[in-house]
């Protein structure tokens, strides 16, 4: 995670799905790439850097946290292709959704696919950042096709760890 102004790390860490990554690791023709600020973590997860918290309202706890980075996997002589690029965490009243750039919109990546339903919990302070550790996730119906219908809607995926430095509401502001 990148550092916030007071030393708090910011970004999103996600392990995708352990069984999926294990399956990929057994593919003799697996090709993978991590780019645009994304990196592999020591715990076999992926880090996506915080790009913007401008659409997140710290007073209400609602809005969008935008992350950068691009993680791709290809195998089965190109028959399997999965891309996780530019994840956004959208927090609304009582729900949260992680979306990614729609691979079908490549190369512009101007469309999004809702990927995961994300557990909604209160944030905790981590230095000068807000942190949402170990948020449970499940696959959304719109994303089933991204995995060639191998996983059903509602299938648990790995939890998310999120940290973001946001503009805090000022005392006395509405």
From TrEMBL:
Query: Do you know which Pfam families this protein is assigned to?
Result: HtaA (PF04213)
Q: Where is the Htaa domain?
A: 12-162
**InterPro entries on file:** Htaa (IPR007331)
- Record-given protein name: Htaa domain-containing protein
Q: Which organism is it from?
A: Nocardioides endophyticus
